[in-house]
Amino acid sequence: MEKYVIRGGKKLSGEVVISGAKNAVVAILPATILSDEPCIVENLPNISDVTIILQILSEMGAKVRMINKTTVEIDPRTLQNVPVPYEKAKLMRASSYFLGTLLGRFHEAHVSMPGGCNLGDRPIDQHLKCFAALGATYNIDGGMVNLTADTLIGNQIFFDKNSVGATINGIMAATKADGLTIIENAAKEPHVVDLANFLNSMGADIIGAGTDVIKIRGVKSLHGTTYSVIPDQIEAGTFMTVAAATRSNILIRNVIPKHLEPITRKLVKIGVQVEQYDDAVRVIGGEDYTGTTVKTQPHPGFPTDMQPQMAAVLTCSKGASMVTESIFDNRFRYVDELRRMGANISVEGRVAVIEGVERLKGAPVKATDLRAGAALIVAALSAEGVTEIYDIFHVERGYENMEEKLRALGADIRKVDEPDPVAAEHTARKAI
Ligand code: UD1
Question: Cβ(237)–Cβ(263) under 8 Å?
């Protein structure tokens, strides 16, 4: 069982290069299924979600060839329409993208209900509403989502919820449908735009991605492409909070500063200095920060995926802060862990009230999900003493070489492999 051991309190310095965006690449890789020719995807982050999607594609019969560490070629022509099983689908939310892409290519899809971070109820009703509007019928049987359609025909779809996943699935299913599909109340996140740009680079006809209304005119076929994934907004934002929490000066490279603006605005408001360049931001931590209010919103609002990391910074800001989560029901599971480190946080429903303390203290803690794990890293780097973070597989789903990138900035962080204490105790008891 791997854990991070972090000795906090060190000032960091230097620069870090941000990897390709997890939430874009997990849509782009399944979308290659729609192509009639091989596709080359560049700026691939080395994270476990990518490994799993490449395994799924390969097991379905696609030819997957790593050209170098960050570039993959996928030839989907030999791919068969086999079910995406529970063992893989349970590992991430993005497995749902196989629904839209297989439906688009084969007019049939069988994918186990998606897993991913436990952030409360995560239904797929809007995905199914969209597939049905395009002409598919569906049923859920034994945890498997089954879709079939004789033909897919463009339609007008209004999402009742602003959903990244349903928007992406809608785009993928409509790309090769007959006629025009209009998606209203579409998600505007950068990864939605990146997926649309990727499909357009293969000959799709998608306009409006990044606005509330996306129009997709179906095309008969898609050709191959070479496409570079956008930089990860949330990895960049996480390093911005690392710089803020450790009162450090860090240059964060390979970013799109526009995507970071909601995070930049909040950090500047509490007293952090942020300098923007063409494809980099420099974050200079201050000595004292003031508390603030944060409310998560769909893009271009403050991203829910940055809420835990921002809360970690606010644990040591002067006065009270109020953090409101408006996307997910259950995104405060990390709070108990921060409390172990001395944070003063109370949670009432979807609102957390943070009373700033002087300093956090290292403690053993557990990553309860991906961004919760990131928040604990931010907290641990600024805390006094040693923090051990367990269940770091969550972090490795979405952050490439986190500990190496932090060590290069001067952080005292090690990844340690140790036997699971519960299993070890069990073995010891049996031996007695
Ligand atoms: C994506 C991101 C995740 C991010 C989230 C919100 C990926 C792989 N994951 O997740 O990192 O935290 O967007 O920015 O890109 N909902 C429904 N019915 C549906 C679909 C969603 O009620 O059919 C609800 C969800 O429960 C949630 C809200 O809509 O309350 C937003 O969810 P959604 O945008 O779909 O998130 P994901 O695509 O799962």
Answer: yes
CA atoms lying within 13 Å on the CB side of residue 367 = 29
pLDDT at residue 13 greater than cutoff 60: yes
For ligand 1, whether the C-beta of 94 sits within 6 Å is: yes
pLDDT tens figures, 267-308: 999 999 999 999 999 999 999 999 999 999 999 999 999 999
Mean pLDDT, the chain, integer: 94
Q: Which is the closest atom of ligand 1 to the Cα of 303? A: 14
Residue 351, C-beta contacts closer than 8 angstroms, at least 6 positions apart: 322, 323, 324, 325
Q: How far apart are CA 365 and CA 345, in angstroms?
A: 16
Q: What pLDDT does residue 20 have?
A: 98
DSSP letter string over 118-168?
Answer: --S----HHHHHHHHHTT-EEEEETTEEEEE-S--B--EEE-SS--HHHHH
CA distances (Å), origin 285, targets 64, 75, 237: 43, 46, 14
* 92 Cα nearest atom in ligand 1: 8
Look up 130 and say whether it is catalytic. no
Beta bridge partners of 351: 324, 348
Beta carbon of 301 within 6 Å of any ligand 1 atom: no
pLDDT over threshold 60, residue 426: no
Rounded Cα distance between 336 and 368, Å, is 10
Describe the strand order of the beta sheet including 351-355 as a list of residue ranges.
Answer: 293-295, 320-324, 351-355, 344-348
| DSSP class of 2 | E
For 81, the 3-state DSSP assignment is coil
Residues of the chain with pLDDT > 70, as a percent, come to 95
Q: Is 188 in the pocket of ligand 1 (CB under 6 A)?
A: no
Average pLDDT over residues 228-240: 98
Residue to mutate, 95, 163, 329, ligand 1, most ligand atoms under 8 Å from C-beta: 163
**pLDDT attached to residue 93:** 81
Residue 333 has pLDDT above 90, yes or no: yes
- For residues 97-126, give the mean pLDDT: 86
Minimal-distance CA residue to ligand 1 atom 7: 23
Which one of 52, 121, 157, 161 would you pick to mutate in the ligand 1 pocket, going by the greatest count of ligand atoms within 8 A of its CB?
Answer: 161
Atom of ligand 1 nearest to the CA of 161: 29
Placement of tokens 């952030």 in the chain: 119
